[in-house]
Amino acid sequence: MPRHALISLAVPPTLELRWVDDLYYGLEELSAAFGVTIVGGNLATTTGPIVVDVTVLGEVEEDLVVRRTGAREGDRLLVTGTLGAPAAALLAWEARVEIPERDRLLTAHRRPRPRVHEGRVVSQSRWATAMIDLSDGLATDLTRLCDANGLGVRLEADALPVDPGLYQVAHQLRIDALDLALRGGEEYELLVAAPPAHAQALAERIRTEVGTAATVIGEFVPAAQGRAVECQGRRVPLLPTGWDHFRQESTADRSA
Amino acid sequence: MPRHALISLAVPPTLELRWVDDLYYGLEELSAAFGVTIVGGNLATTTGPIVVDVTVLGEVEEDLVVRRTGAREGDRLLVTGTLGAPAAALLAWEARVEIPERDRLLTAHRRPRPRVHEGRVVSQSRWATAMIDLSDGLATDLTRLCDANGLGVRLEADALPVDPGLYQVAHQLRIDALDLALRGGEEYELLVAAPPAHAQALAERIRTEVGTAATVIGEFVPAAQGRAVECQGRRVPLLPTGWDHFRQESTADRSA
Prior knowledge:
2 copies of one chain form a homodimer. By secondary structure, the first copy, chain A, is an alpha+beta fold.
């Protein structure tokens, strides 16, 4: 459980104090919601853009720790929440695209909710074999999980919980929604590995106990089978940077 | 005692990996020297200059904690080491001034030694009533200590342990050495308050047990007497930004 936070800011000397105040309002609000105390930090000036560094310290019972390592072949992968909302928000905002769900997407981008309670349910279930959070996008963080465990992976494209707003943005900008969902980033969702016998039950438990969606999206396979996404009968290589849906993977072809 | 450290970097994408490696060599070397383990951190890119944020976590026995508050009227102030070496190094480097002690000063700037053992002696003596470290310069950090304790201060200019190299730089650049010593910054020396009966003994203990110089430089006075530096019979106001040696303080004139 998170307990203490330290906030370090590097800001341009011309920045209005109001900006810093507003940032702290947000930090205080989120900290209070999760019982976290801001205990320190630092303030410095920079000639460059604003840099905010947040260190959070927490505690967990030794026998409830879930690490990045520990996953086995056949373990299923499940992910909390939806994928791609923050990325869609940023794209829509940058391209000035008007979509029905603009405000909800922007909130997902600006006020991500840390999956603290979800993570607690996962660790207390004692079913999870490995876990990571999605800050750099599913493709990148899943690649890290594969690397850490020496495994390959097979994702089901149809199973991915793509945020509906992302389809709206992708349609307007004529880009590949699934690629965006894989690259995403800033979701802070949890990606969890659990044995086949327990994966669906774990997803169900997260939904029941916290009210957050959780979806089984694929499974770990032997490293020799590589890392790929199954999409409408095709097998497409999963790259840390997303996927290349124009490229059909051969058996020998493994993504880095 | 410091135990764990987290290192967050924001670097331009064009930065050579070698620079990051070199930074980590230095961090590892210093951590090892003080029994600190680097347990985490973050790496991000920025379009601005490099930002390095270091969080250090430590432990101290509850009855040995020395805070910023707790100083009383009449308490003497002592400071470890010397003042102004890092500031002198930066000035000499920027102005391309050649002075005999250039290398030693640059080392003081580039490789500051945290005063961990000195701080330990201070807290174990149980004499110290308040303490702060000098990262923003004596004038600024002493002002913080005065504010925290609701006190004024009288510094003895002749007692300040000004780094000899600072005089060389100040002479060449025709600037006021004492002002530079007061504004200084990046020294990471300890500024300690202790009752008059124990201040000299505490300074002596630091010298004996760690081999680091420690000097009594002034005393806390009632807030109504303001904050000033006694210099050759004159009383000059101490400002958070240094001092104004052209300005003679009247009794009613108090620095902020």
